[in-house]
Description:
Blueprint: H1 3-6, H2 9-41, H3 47-59, E1 62-63, H4 64-71, H5 75-87, E2 91-95, E3 103-107, H6 109-130, H7 135-158
Antiparallel strand pairs: 1-3, 2-3
Helix pairs in contact: 3-4, 3-5, 4-5
Amino acid sequence: MSEKDSLGGSEAASVDRSLKLFVVLSRASKSLMDFAQQDMKRYQLNPSEFAVLELLHHKGPTPIQQIGGRVLLASGTMTYVVDKLEKKGYLKRCPCAQDRRVIYAELTEQGASLMQDIFPKHAQALHQLMEVLPAEEQEQLTSLLKKLGRHIAQVNTNH
């Protein structure tokens, strides 16, 4: 007797529904990320580089130590990405006047110009993908995914 057979009919259906949702979410997420990566590649940027530039574009100069947490990068990866972007001329490191231990990353003129050019194009490309869903469905999906994400985060902290 399999584990599935030992579940009641409605519970088995509920488990199947959850598994199907997991597969559908995983595939949709992969498709979306593949599309976004291809779009970023047009600008010779990888997703980590784009995420850092996007953060600095929207938030302004940011302590390097905080960037990794905001764009979900490990500190070792963060240093590598900042180094690459600095070599490309898109960002610079600036020491904090109040605390010499803190180093800020900020966009150079070249980095700011790049983001002013490419971010609207990237946003438009993503918008065109999402247009398959009417505004109300987009809002519902956003709300449901936030709810699911909060629940998963809570479960993870309790394990």
